Amino acid sequence: MRAPLGPFDNARPAPDCLEELTPPVADAVRGWQGGIPAEQLVYVDTDPAIADTAVFAEHYGPGLLGQSANCVVVAGKRGGESTLAACVVLSRTRVDVNGVVRRQLGARKASFAAMDTAVGETGMEYGGITPIGLPASWPLLVDSAVLDTEWVLIGSGRRRGKLIVPGKIFGGLPGAVVLEGLGV
Question: The domain 11-179 is classified under which CATH number: 3.40.640.10, 3.90.960.10, 3.50.50.60, 3.30.428.70?
């Protein structure tokens, strides 16, 4: 199979490589009910040592920055209560945590979740967190520009490997709320 974007030699439909995914991501792919067939979720094997966005783009080509997205876990706090959420923005932008996220969560304060919290609550590796397979009870805040991107490169749940998926799927994931200006 040829990857829909990038110079990846080893591209396979995600349902054919569930063993490469973390349990929550594999479960989400196995039970996929999105608007497109699960076979259009493409897994590509990549080096875990270069999983971070800037290094990844330097290795595979800077053109991927416009087609890559980051998924980060945030914590909104208000009155002693904490709410975890995930945010998906294109890699060339950053999440507006103190503006859009804080207001959307109705929080007094919002910040990136601690690494231990993000890893423990998602069951995924830090640096590979993906919106596919997140806890269904979480808000999933998605920048509208991600949906407008034909194919999006995103984490696979591990630092090794990435998923390439149609951008439009993010709006249909559990808990998804599409927002303008989430990525600035």
Answer: 3.90.960.10
Across the beta sheet with 69-78, the strand order is: 109-112, 69-78, 81-90, 140-143, 176-179
**54: CB partners within 8 A, 6+ apart:** none
Order of strands across the sheet with 11-13? 11-13, 42-44, 162-166, 151-155
User: According to the model, what pLDDT value does residue 52 have?
Assistant: 87
Give CA–CA dist 77/178, Å, rounded. Answer: 21
Dihedral of alpha carbons 8, 41, 169, 178, sign: negative
Phi, psi angles (nearest 5°) of residue 160: -85, 125
Whether the model clears a pTM of 0.85, i.e. scores above it, the answer is yes
Percent of the chain with pLDDT over 90: 89
Model confidence at 107, in pLDDT bands (50, 70, 90)? Answer: very high
Residue 53: band (very low, low, confident or very high) from pLDDT cuts 50, 70, 90:
confident
Q: Is residue 166 pLDDT above 90, yes or no?
A: yes
Total Cβ atoms within 10 A of residue 184:
12
Which 3 state secondary structure label does DSSP give 180?
coil
Sign of CA pseudo-dihedral 96, 99, 101, 102: positive
